[in-house]
Amino acid sequence: MRWRGVPLDILVAASAVGLDLLTTAKAGDTEFIPAEMNLPMALLVGLPMGLVRRWPVIVSLYLAVALFVTDQLGSFTSNTAQILLCVALGVAGYTSRVRATAVAVAASIFATAFNIADPGAALTGNMWMYSILLPVFPAVLGAYLRSSAERLEEREVTPDALLAAGGVAITVLSTWTTWHSGTQPVWVVGLLAVVGGLSLGIARRLPGLVFLLQGVLLVSADTYLNAAVNTCVILTLIAIGVFSMRVVSWAWTVAAYVTGCLLTAIAVVGDNTEITGFRVGVLMTLVATPIAIGRYLGVRRAAAATEKLVAEEAARAAVAQVRADQLAERERIARDVHDIVAHHVGAMVLRASAARYAAPDGPVADALNDIRETGHQVLQDLRDLLDLLRDPDRQPDLLANPADVVRESAERMAAAGLVVDLDLDPATDQTPLIARTSAARIVQEGLTNVLKHAGPGTRVRVSVTPSEEGLDVEIRNGRPPTAIERLPSSGRGLAGMRERVRTLGGTLSAGPDGEGGWLLAAHLPAHSRVSPGSAA
């Protein structure tokens, strides 16, 4: 589940207000601000953080102004404004453009400089360096995270959000009462506490960087704020655990373990601490525990990824097997169809050939020749169909020029008794081959239907012309001259033509023309996409 929308913005704003209330809980009156104004000041500084995800640059500029104003008023809220300003700059660096972020950083540098400098004191070189690095670092870190986040494979942010929230809760709740006791300003200690906790949110993605940061914070706390050492040790152990989960190399894991032991020893061993074997064993076991947990979770995660990969491979294999079974069944059906139809057509061709030699020249001999040639063509089409069913992805071979097929069909139907008027635009040769081939098949089927249903003597006009968007085919026949006995029909010819045209992405219409005849019109697009297994 991903955290989105208003609930997360409300949570951020409430957290910012709560942070300021924690830091100013023991603050009394100042020269300009009474203690009763602590709550309004907290709302004034914290509530805009609810908009930081949408307008981080604007929020950063607002917080820079708030930092300057609260510092001039002597309000303790300036410490919270300094912390929240760094957070807003990090979000700006992560989500905003470089120029906009640079403007926010520049304003933040001046506000930070005035906050650091004591009243009446000049800004030294060290102060300026500190004032520059403090706003620049979160902005640069945000920009770095943005550039590296695009290469991450894991997009789920809920574990990261939980780690960050838990880290902030640990650092703030366990150290906020001692922020005034150190030698550093309150806002510096608070900022380090918040950054230390938030850094756990990127531990899964940048485990080495977070581990290094936690080590630096632990050493700094041991030097400047002893009350926060135990909290830093906890964060360091969590970082070690996440590092062990994400890093597969045992060499790096051992290096992290040794480093963790040294850091923990620095934190817990004092000048008067007696070093015994038992204490050393406890310390080493303490550091080994998160490493063991991290390695276990890493192995479980790798096993889950492997299992998912195996499942995906099995699914692909199952699909491939189904596909192979379908192809095998199609080939079997195609072979059966070929054997049955080829047997009868072959017998028809043989009988027509024999009758041709016995018949005298004339219309009967021409009809027998036509039957023989048509039979040979049918046998060749059956072989092509069988090859296509065996390999649906293969484009069928064209036996003739589509234009020649159209002319031959017109001549054959004319010989059978139709009065055919063919209008074949020579420009059709410039259209795609698949469209011309389909047009030839439509002309063949359309003329055959006219002969079946209208009979000899019917006048037919066939038009094949190119258009800007493809190829247009029109077959229009007039009223049958006399009543005829209709030839048997399967009723599948028109349905087959519709399926062919639909597969190519075109349109087909057929019906009475209003004058006693019939009109068949088809449009074939110039750029069509033939789906695998479509009929040729």
From TrEMBL:
Q: Which CDD domains match?
A: HATPase_UhpB-NarQ-NarX-like
Q: Which UniProt keywords apply?
A: ATP-binding, Kinase, Membrane, Nucleotide-binding, Phosphoprotein, Transferase, Transmembrane, Transmembrane helix, Two-component regulatory system
The membrane-spanning stretches of this chain are: 51-69, 76-94, 100-117, 129-149, 161-179, 186-203, 223-243, 250-270, 276-298
State the Gene3D superfamilies in the record: 1.20.5.1930, Histidine kinase-like ATPase, C-terminal domain (3.30.565.10)
Instruction: Give the Enzyme Commission number.
Output: 2.7.13.3
> Which reaction does this enzyme catalyse, per its entry?
ATP + protein L-histidine = ADP + protein N-phospho-L-histidine
The Signal transduction histidine kinase subgroup 3 dimerisation and phosphoacceptor domain sits at: 329-392
Taxonomy, superkingdom: Bacteria
Q: Where is the Histidine kinase/HSP90-like ATPase domain?
A: 439-525
- Which PANTHER family does this entry report, sorted A to Z? NITRATE/NITRITE SENSOR PROTEIN NARX-RELATED, NITRATE_NITRITE SENSOR PROTEIN NARQ
Q: What is this protein called?
A: histidine kinase
Question: From which source organism is this entry?
Answer: Nonomuraea monospora
